[in-house]
Structure prediction request, 294 residues.
Amino acid sequence: MKKRNIVFTVLLTVLPTVSWAELYLVDQIDCVVCGPERNTPIVDTDITIKRNLDGQKVPLQNQVQNDIISQQILADKIPIDPTAADKYIDSMKKQNNLTDSDLAELFEQVGRTFTEGLGLLSDQYYHEMFMHHKFKSQLVATDDDIKQYYEEHPEYSEGWCELQVAYVDYTDETKDTVKQNVEQIIQGKQVDGFTVDWSSPMKVKVNELVADKKFIFDLDISAIAMLQANNTFELYKLIDKKSATLIPLEDVRSSITDKLNRKKLESMLSNYNQEVRKFIDIIDLSDSFIMAGE
Prediction:
């Protein structure tokens, strides 16, 4: 369909209505997806008002992609159960204990009518089915692929240390005495009439230690380090620690498989989109608009 013909159709539809009335903007066509099965207009409210069920607006590029998939399902004659989407929606309602009223309220919150909301759910189901039929069924990460990725992108568990902290105050007059007492405590000796109140043990990730406290991890177990601050001696006792260790392959196999499949899927989709665009035309009509009379 030519851009000229589309604009003419819009104007022809509205002129009899608005010829005698003041005009105001109702909606505006941003583009038309001209595909093998139909010409689908995407209007401004589809982008600025209507949202996905997660509350996020759907970018124009995503809406174009969704319509291309919908048309390809028809063009490729992919066998589908006409009742499958309804069954999917019914199952979703049961799993989440939702009524039609609940769905209607949810759809209203994202700027859609009840019919539009059901259509959105149906499209999501058929699009996922298309993705599986066209691509996901071909995603098979081999053991060699997984092992190579594991070796090139090693993952480590986070190192940590468990410690206790104490703060011992002093004045200019008591500084030397307090320091001597603290040093006796550090050496494991007892000092009559002098004690240190330690905090409860706390476990801290190594990468969360501030720069001037990184040394704590290098202490020996049970060792105590002392820092001097304003009128305070800071004490750090290392109770336990564990260095970062390489995570075994089997523990990350699933996540590596997902990453490899996602990367392959993106490549397949990119190639597919380039091929499909030979049969799809996107006509920009953002300067056209639909008017109505007051």
Remarks:
- The first strand starts at residue 23 and ends at 27.
- The CA atoms of residues 107 and 117 lie 5 Å apart.
